[in-house]
Amino acid sequence: MRTPSRGSDQRSGGPSRGRGAVLLSALTLLLASGCAKRFALVPKELEKVETEGNIKSLSVYTSKRLVTTWVEGEVAQQFEVSGQIRQASARQRLKNVVSKSVPGQILEVAELNGMPLLWVTFDSSCNEPDCAFGFVETEDKLYRLFQAPELEGYGPPTNYYSYLSKRRVMKLGKMQSLGEANDVMVNKKRNGKLRTINLEIIKEVDDRVRTRSRRSGGVKPE
Question: How far apart, in whole angstroms, are the C-alpha atoms of residue 61 and residue 160?
Fold first, then answer.
């Protein structure tokens, strides 16, 4: 049996043309299916969700990796005197990491100094604001980290921007002016700029353009 040549495939619309048709179809489907992107959660979007009455079904995410630690409170200490004083104690530190890909749930919408305060949990075992993270709306219409939950038997929580480092510790402060309603957790860079962590959502934007074709018939001279 004679094997078709490469040229005969191209002339007869063989495998090469078939592969091209498959790729074109896949590309068409991709362009038509919309694209899911991350956007900052803003009051306008939150109002739409609240209107629908299903705020707990909305998944929210942190704009940056959030690391929170708690150090154990008072523990038994060893105290010895043998020529010199020796004092030793050991405390446990718990670390919790919320990555950008971890979905959270809004448990409750409260208010702090006239601004909306969202209590968000990233743990399925937490169902109350007492164990949730607080994100308050700031003057630029973003929901920024305000506080982390406290743990019984441990000292106040410490939050870190992206990773555990003394240079990444976040503290309560103003974003721009003293007139802002609330302080939020900020981390100051060496150049003076502030880092914060805000809430984001995943939104699928389906902005398809459908084409209708027609042919011009032309105009005959009179």
Answer: 16
Are 105 and 59 contacting, i.e. CB atoms less than 8 angstroms apart? Answer: yes
* Spatial distance between the Cα atoms of 95 and 99, rounded to a whole number of angstroms: 13
Q: If DSSP codes are grouped into helix, strand and coil, which group holds residue 50?
A: helix
Is 30 within a domain?
A: no
On whether the pTM is more than 0.85, the answer is no
Torsion of CA 152, 153, 154, 157, to 10 degrees: 10
Question: Would you say residue 15 has pLDDT above 70?
Answer: no
Q: Which residue has the higher pLDDT, 153 or 210?
A: 153
Residues across the chain: 222
Pairing of strands 78-81, 85-88: antiparallel
Domain count, the chain: 1
For 165-187, write each residue's pLDDT tens digit.
999 999 999 998 888 999 999 99
* Tokens read off for 79: 């105290």
Q: Please give the Cα distance from 159 to 60 (Å, whole number).
A: 19
Domain residues for the domain of 192 are 35-72+88-202
Note whether residue 82 is domain-resident: no
Residues with Cβ within 8 Å of 67's Cβ and at least 6 positions away in sequence, in order, are 95, 96, 97, 98, 159, 160, 162, 163, 164, 168
Rounded to whole angstroms, how far apart are CA atoms 93 and 90?
A: 10
Tell me the two tokens of residue 55. 């705020």
Specify if 219 maps to a domain: no
State residue 154's pLDDT score: 94
Q: Is residue 51 part of a domain?
A: yes
